């Protein structure tokens, strides 16, 4: 019959986490050598080149072109600084040949739509009747699409009924009831600024 020998228990005072750390007994001090400081300072010391300053041969102002020490690129070297017989001039001219000309580009501003004066007094009267009879269905945008005019013209010839204005007021009050303190203060400040605009302040 095999018997297992029990390991002797260690004393509580000899546990490793109770012993002082080696870092406390011998603190590690990181010091920067003076030689590394000199090497870093020497690398940052750049010798000034003659092209950095103004040229003594030309007294008037001119462009100083000092490209970085890297492989030249057609898209980085300006054409002004290329020799007349440089092949890169031909390559650049060939690459620009496929670009659209100014005549092929769309206009900068949109064309102003031509104004129409096709509505008769009978049409205007019908717009007013539809607006008063059912303001919820016949909004300004729907009337503008039906009579082929702008919503601004519909607002000029007729206005919403008092019932529609009351409904819009209730909807606005419901939306404002969900506002927080910050939004309410911001809207009040906006109204004060608008009043100041009228007083030219």
TrEMBL record:
It comes from the Eukaryota. One of its GO terms (cellular component) is mitochondrial large ribosomal subunit. InterPro entries: Ribosomal_mL58 (IPR024388). GO terms for molecular function: structural constituent of ribosome. This is Mitochondrial ribosomal protein subunit L20-domain-containing protein.
């Amino acid at each position: 019959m095999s018997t297992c020998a029990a390991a002797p228990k260690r004393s509580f005072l000899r546990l490793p986490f109770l012993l002082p750390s080696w870092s406390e007994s011998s603190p590690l001090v990181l010091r920067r050598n003076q030689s590394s400081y000199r090497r870093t300072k020497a690398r940052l010391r750049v010798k000034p080149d003659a092209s950095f300053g103004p040229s003594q041969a030309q007294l008037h102002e001119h462009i100083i072109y000092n490209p970085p020490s890297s492989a030249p690129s057609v898209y980085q070297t300006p054409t002004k600084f290329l020799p007349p017989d440089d092949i890169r001039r031909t390559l650049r001219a060939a690459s620009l040949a496929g670009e659209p000309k100014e005549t092929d580009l769309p206009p900068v501003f949109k064309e102003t739509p031509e104004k129409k004066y096709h509505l008769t007094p009978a049409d205007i009267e019908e717009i007013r009747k539809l607006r008063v009879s059912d303001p919820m269905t016949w909004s300004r945008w729907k009337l503008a699409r039906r009579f082929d005019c702008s919503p601004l013209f519909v607002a000029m010839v007729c206005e919403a009924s008092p019932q529609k204005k009351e409904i819009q007021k209730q909807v606005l009050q419901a939306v404002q009831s969900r506002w927080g303190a910050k939004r309410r203060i911001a809207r009040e400040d906006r109204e004060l600024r608008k009043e100041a605009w009228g007083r030219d302040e």
